[in-house]
Amino acid sequence: MARAATTTDAFNAVAEPRRRQILDVLADGERPVNDLVAVLELSQPLVSKHLRVLREVGLVEVRDEGRQRIYRLNGKELKPIHDWVRAFERTWERRFARMDTVLEELTELEREEGDDPR
Q1: pLDDT confidence of residue 86
Q2: For the chain, what is the radius of gyration of the CA atoms?
Q3: In 20, 56, 69, 87, which residue has its Cα 20 to 30 A from 26's Cα atom?
Q4: Residues near 117 by Cβ (< 8 Å), separated by ≥ 6?
Q5: How far is 44 from 87, CA to CA, in rounded Å?
Q6: What average pLDDT values come out for the chain (118 residues) when binned by 10 residues?
């Protein structure tokens, strides 16, 4: 089965780690391409390539400001990813809560054994 093109949807686009890095940087606010290049320490053509993919799936928006192109996140298009990840967040919260219970029980057992006068 052929893999879907990265430009078909947001999930495929964010499968690439460098695109996630770009989104992480843009989470702090708008940035021109040159700032992204400097922060990510990647070549300008590579950053532009990834920005094009993110723009095509709607995860980022661009506006011209003089000679610069300024990029920003598009939260509306990120929502399906957020919603999908939230299901896993609930699962992990339940698992961590159970782990906390087990750790509390083990700590109590250690205290009780420490009080044993043997």
Answers
A1: 87
A2: 23
A3: 87
A4: none
A5: 36
A6: 64 93 95 94 95 95 93 91 87 89 91 72
In this structure, what are the phi and psi dihedrals at residue 24, rounded to the nearest 5 degrees?
-60, -45
User: What is the predicted pLDDT for the residue at 5?
Assistant: 57
pLDDT for residue 90: 83
- DSSP per-residue codes, the chain: -PPPPTTS-HHHHTTSHHHHHHHHHHTTS-EEHHHHHHHHT--HHHHHHHHHHHHHTTSEEEEEETTEEEEEE-HHHHHHHHHHHHHHHHHHHHHHHHHHHHHHHHHHHHHHHHT---
Nearest to 59 by CA among 9, 17, 115: 9
* Contact call for residues 33 and 44 (beta carbons, < 8 A): yes
